[in-house]
Amino acid sequence: MAAAYKLTYFNSTALGEAIRFILSYGKIEFEDNRLAYDDNWPSVKPTLPLPYGQLPILEHDGKIAYQSLAICRYAAKQAKLVGSNDWEDLEIDAAADTINDLRMKIGQYHYEKDPKVKEQKKSPLFEETLPFYIEKFEKQIEKNNGYFALGKLTWADLYFVSLLKYLNYMLGKELTDGAPGLRGINEKVCALPQIKAYLDKRPQTRC
Amino acid sequence: MAAAYKLTYFNSTALGEAIRFILSYGKIEFEDNRLAYDDNWPSVKPTLPLPYGQLPILEHDGKIAYQSLAICRYAAKQAKLVGSNDWEDLEIDAAADTINDLRMKIGQYHYEKDPKVKEQKKSPLFEETLPFYIEKFEKQIEKNNGYFALGKLTWADLYFVSLLKYLNYMLGKELTDGAPGLRGINEKVCALPQIKAYLDKRPQTRC
């Protein structure tokens, strides 16, 4: 029987990996449909049911979902990685959105095409933005018993760890260097049996 | 007695207005704490309890929440503007995130400081991005009985309408021109008695 869920994304971590992590954590079977981002992509793209032209999408029961964070939140409810009331879910959502803000800021540097502008963006990112977020994250993790929210494992932790390879790739350095709280979350999440099993079998990709 | 919720944002619509709309719709009393974005702001900012240096924040029961979309989602649960199962909430979340994507793309043009780069960004935004999103939105609204999701009013509709003044300001034109579906949502939301009452009393601001 086909899996109840089909995730379509590129053969990379980036915006698809958190969904893979969360579904794996919840032992929810899914077809991990990985597309090559290569010369064929422009001809493959129009054949896909993409509501707003973007990946990832999640197919389930004849329906199609889009927007990676919205899909993560849905998957996290199925995997029991959410809070126990509305305010707790707000705390998790805010943490995930803040991690995503940092991801976008790093992306604005990494994907800048003009080498001169990219050079101008380097110092503000590495000397200001990154230390600002890391200091705030470390304080938040200290307050939350070694996690991003609620003093326990939530999908915000899986979201961060799943993005780390991609963030490190874009930065050209280890984001968690000198950040024991973030390193601790990475170690704890990677040691979860379901995540470890997924990591052992996932295709090796550059980012 | 003080209101159970205190929303702190600038005296403008932008990222705070959706929360004001949603709380107003739900008849949830809140203190609408509006700050001037003026010469005093740099000295006011450090006195505020801002977890990541950003507004809006929502204070409730001695706790502080941040991230506008996460706060909207929380408020929408209190105001009964959400779906009736996880997949329905995913559909609303995806619509809101897509509206937010467009808001960010418009902001990347509007806030560009280099006049030459801004000019370069103009045509892709007005000739490609905007028509792309509007066409997709119109189809989605047609499929959803005149709303963004679920064929009925949800917080995605209030989110869009609350942002419209700000988006029009950044674009320098009416985003909904030639988009009957979006205009219809705007009319329906503004005609809701609680929203109308809020609009009648809100301070007049430039954006």
Automatic annotation (TrEMBL), chains A, B:
Highest taxon above the source species: Eukaryota
Reactions catalysed according to its record: RX + glutathione = an S-substituted glutathione + a halide anion + H(+)
UniProt keyword terms in alphabetical order: Transferase
CDD domains listed in its UniProt record: GST_C_Sigma_like (cd03192), GST_N_Sigma_like (cd03039)
Protein's GO biological process: glutathione metabolic process
Pfam families: GST_C_3, GST_N
Domain annotation GST C-terminal: ranges: 85-207
PANTHER family: GLUTATHIONE S-TRANSFERASE, HEMATOPOIETIC PROSTAGLANDIN D SYNTHASE
Family: Belongs to the GST superfamily. Sigma family.
Record's protein name: glutathione transferase
Lineage: Eukaryota, Metazoa, Ecdysozoa, Arthropoda, Hexapoda
